[in-house]
Design a protein that fits this description.
Layout (H helix, E strand, L loop, with lengths): L1 H8 L6 H28 L2 H8 L15 H22 L4 H22 L15 H18 L2 H21 L1 E2 L3 E2 L8 H9 L17 H19 L7 H23 L11 H24 L7 H7 L2 H7 L6 H13 L7 H22 L7
Antiparallel strand pairs: 1-2
Helix pairs in contact: 2-3, 2-4, 2-11, 2-12, 2-15, 4-6, 4-9, 4-11, 5-6, 6-9, 7-9, 9-11, 10-11, 14-15
């Protein structure tokens, strides 16, 4: 019993739960969501029908489980910061090198985002310049700058300042033709900034969900992760890993309540990344991390997590492959068409999604075994 307690409370050098949660997050967009939707159509069970509804973004105000994917990834990147960059600062690495590495990472993510959005089609006038990878790079970079230049208290002040400042901008600054505080698709202030300054095509015509102004609160999402990373790395006497995991879950529940309350004045909305959305999505991120952390890092049930860890260690690879850099669907058809045809026609969509997941995961497992990781 004593040996188990010593193992449980030992400070980990790397959070396996963080890699697994990142893999779970990426799995949702790399086959998981498609599998749920295919099972919904095939079975027509209420359970799968409900889950299928959650695999689509809400149209405007509100929240579905699918809306957690992007902020969860940013949150995880923030959690890793005290472990990665914090460790570099502790061992005396030059700050200039860390800044340069962070800037390179930001620019590379922006470039990969351009490739994902069709930069090589050379139709630059109609290309969408706003992008998921670019927002991740920019939000992560500014979170790094704040992390490296402020104390934990200063980071909390930045977090609160960003959320309150964005709320004030969106509610108080008037948009020509609409006035102040209008949070419709056409009338919101973030969309107005996109129309003024973003070149190319906007995803929704009048605005882009990865636009300029709405990237500011995304920095707050990363900072929420940073504060969580500080908490997990802390070594205060009497604060065991079990207590940390449970505390994260409880704080996550509180955040859900705060987000719902703020929703009354500033609706939860992923497309304009409202402050209430940051808090509400942060609540779900904390709860999910709590579950993974308790199961994997505290109670040491690890074997099941390999499936997600393999994906989580190569998230950019699987994301880019979804754009067609590698055609997993062609590989699936080559290897599994005969097998798929053995099933009845209604069941074939389910088997096709499963085969796609198998092919893509085996590719990532090969990279994992060879220790090949696309790092940016």
């Amino acid at each position: 019993m004593k040996k188990k307690e010593e193992t449980t409370d030992k400070k980990p050098q790397r959070l396996l739960s963080l890699d697994a949660l990142r893999g779970f997050d990426m799995f949702l967009i790399a086959g998981g969501g498609g599998l749920i939707r295919a099972l919904s159509v095939y079975t027509d069970w209420d359970f799968f029908n409900f889950l299928a509804q959650q695999t689509r973004h809400v149209e405007w105000h509100g929240f579905a489980f699918w809306d957690i994917i992007f902020p969860l990834f940013l949150f995880i990147a923030g959690v890793a910061m005290p472990y990665s960059i914090g460790r570099r600062l502790e061992r005396g690495d030059e700050r200039k090198e860390i800044y340069l590495h962070s800037l390179k990472r930001c620019l590379l993510l922006i470039f990969l985002g351009f490739l994902y959005n069709g930069f090589l089609d050379f139709n630059w006038e109609n290309m969408r310049y706003a992008q998921v990878l670019g927002r991740i790079g920019i939000a992560w970079f500014f979170a790094v700058v704040i992390f490296m230049n402020t104390s934990k208290r200063g980071q909390m002040i930045w977090l609160a300042g960003i959320l309150l400042g964005y709320w004030a901008m969106m509610k108080l600054i008037p948009v020509p033709g609409y006035g102040a505080g209008v949070l419709t698709l056409e009338g919101n202030f973030a969309g107005y900034i996109d129309r003024l300054f973003l070149p190319g095509r906007l995803a929704f015509g009048s605005m882009d969900p990865e636009g300029i102004l709405s990237t500011i609160p995304a920095v707050a999402t990363a900072l929420l992760g940073v504060m969580t990373g500080h908490f997990l790395r802390s070594e205060r006497e009497g604060v065991t890993m079990l207590r940390k995991g449970l505390t994260m879950g409880l704080i996550g529940i509180v955040f859900l309540g705060v987000g719902q309350l703020w929703d009354l004045a500033f609706p939860i909305n992923k497309k304009i990344w409202t402050s209430s959305f940051v808090i509400y999505a942060g609540g779900w991120s904390l709860i999910l991390l709590s579950v993974f952390y308790l199961i994997i890092d505290v109670w040491r049930f690890k074997r099941w997590a390999l499936f997600f860890v393999v994906i989580g260690l190569n998230p950019i690879t699987i994301y880019m492959c979804n754009r067609g850099v590698l055609r997993f669907d062609s590989s699936r058809d080559f290897f599994f068409t005969g097998f798929i045809n053995l099933f009845s026609e209604p069941a074939q969509p389910v088997i096709k999604v499963l085969a796609y997941i198998v092919v893509s995961w085996l590719f990532l497992y090969f990279l994992y075994r060879k220790k090949i990781f696309l790092r940016v």
